[in-house]
Structure prediction request, 762 residues.
Amino acid sequence: MYGLPHSVLWVVVVQLLAFAVLPYLAWMCPKAPDRGYGWSKILGVFAFSGSAWLCSLCGLTTDNNLLLSLIFGVFLFMGYRGYRSRWLSRQELGAILKEYARPVEGAFLGLTLFFGIIRFVNPEIFWGEKPMDSTFLNFFVRNEQLPPQDPWAAGSPMSYYYLGIYFMAALIKLTNIPPSIGYNLAMAMLAGWIGAALFSLLITLTKGKRFSSYAVWVLLLASNPEVLRLSIMNLFIGKEFNFDTTFWPSTRVFVSPSFLEYTSWSLLFADLHAHVIAIPFTVTALGLATLVFLDGAHRYSPQGFFTRVVLGSIIGSLFGINTWDFITFGGVVGLMIAFSQVPLFWKPPTNSDGSPIIGEVVLVTIFTRVVAFIWDLSLFGASAACVVWLYQKGVSFRPSGGWGWVSSHEFNSVPKLFRIIGYWLTGMLVVVGVLAWQRDKTDRPIAVPHLLIGMFLFVLAFIPPLLSMQRGLENHPWGTFVYCGTLVALAYMVMWSNRRAEPESRALALFIACAGSLIVILEIFFLLDRMNTLFKGYMAVWMLSGVSTVVGAFYAYQAIARRDSVRLKMISRWSGYAFVGLLLIGTSVNVYAIVRQKRVNSRHYTLDGIAYLRDMNPDDAALIAWLNANVKGTPTILEAQGDAYREYTRISMHTGLPTVLGWEHHAKQRGLSEREALDRRKAIQAVYIHEDVEITKKLLLDNRVDFIVVGSIERATYRRLDPTKFENHPELFTKVASFGATTLYVTYFSKFNPKYGSGLSQ
Prediction:
């Protein structure tokens, strides 16, 4: 079974990295129920791949895996020392494993296996934007220098957030797994990383091990209501459930060109995009921020110091993994830290009758808050800024542009919003309502100041649309703003203002407030462009509202369980079952659609994402294998250029070799100018069809071309292509490999030619 040994090796390496960082993470997180066991799965990769990236940034080469093996060895040794010293004793490790190994490893390995099987039956790195993701992955397996070039615009600096794909490439280089297999392994394990991180977050908020174990699967596999709606429609009209009738259109509900690809959908679609790679990091950041929010006692301890530094580093890394998440989750984590629990430095004096002196209480509270804010900002902000600064040293990526107001025709109606995230929107409101209804009868009524704050929060949701109206915009989705204002206000009054409110319920109130606030912001403003703002922003809304719903449901069920009503308990239990059923029915339809999808002529059961090409175009497949085996580094290759989402750029896609111009639209999105794209397109065409050898020579020199591919796709694209042009000019071209109809030439200007430089004098 091709790919099984690679899968085992991949899992073993990731597990070793996780257990290497676990002793230090457990020391940092004494208040986390599982001591950070679930977070260790992704933080091990973060520490290892981040160290490799820093070494590359300093000019050290990772060629031949020597440096990567050394870093890996150092991590294993540090892990060994961590267990031998005071960080985490073997007895403590045994206790953690006994209590949490089954749920954490069940989520991590179970979800990895589940999505690995789906990749096994549908492994092709083909269609969608997999060609771009595969190009990046292969490129960073080859690349030894920072800042990197854009592999779809050779010689042009990369203006794109690449750090997540770099992390995956570092693991592939360490394990020496072929990237065509590593691509599918990375996609499968992303689910495991997300699941393990979610478990640590959920158990921190609920302390319920069994609940958290099940909730992880529900959260990660949840579908949206649109899948169910489309399935019912197709059932009535007799249409088949497939990719084109249910899976794809279920995410294309928002006003075009906006859309939302939620977690399970993205993992099934299997584009190894930046926003998908970022998910386990954002969940881990939410978990550590929750821990910081709850654990005020360790704020000024060494553990608190390093927790804030690690949290800031993760948020800073999101700038290079998926910059939109740096903005959204940076704001969420910032709020969590700003409102975290802060024990007073000293007990304020009281009156003679024991009543508090209001002025003293205010003074102590303000002083304590100011010191805590400065401390947190210094650690969290400085570490995040440091990572951002380092990333900007190693890339030409500079986010440009501004923000603007959403146009009247771009607003999404309330029905559209509920078709996309309706399960969570309904769930959050029901949860808050149940908690309000189940308030302890001994509690005092909500005080007037808290009522006023709640009213203020409700009104706050209407300020952005009212400002938008002042600019002459119309057709606002007022129902959305009513919903968000009501949700945030109720969450504050029910979960925060109660004098007996637990810190966990206040953390949940912040999650709900952030989800509601983000919806308002995303519907009124855009940053850089509307499509990415909505697409990437609602990914954060999906996770925040999903976590809020399942955790809130746990609290609501606990409140109901305290009552003596058997009927009420039964209704709540079966309502939960029905809700989960709705979530997973849609997922079943999605899985069926993906497994049944057939984008190539013959199906292959393997983890090798390039296996299909051996049947579709064996000549190209043989050339790709030859290049991967014989050509090191990142020389420039020339191949046919054409429309996106078609057969073009196939050599660069599977080798990582930079090409003169890949999919043009995507290259321009990453900063290539319209003029330069046109010049490159004309240059490629001229090299293939122009009869003047001197012009060809100049174009090859200008674009620093090392290899030229002449295959069936080039002949079909450039009808006037005459292969004898390359055969008849040995002073410029040397044939180095030929496989059927596909031939590879090396230019005499290339350092990969044994006669390097001899052509320069011709």
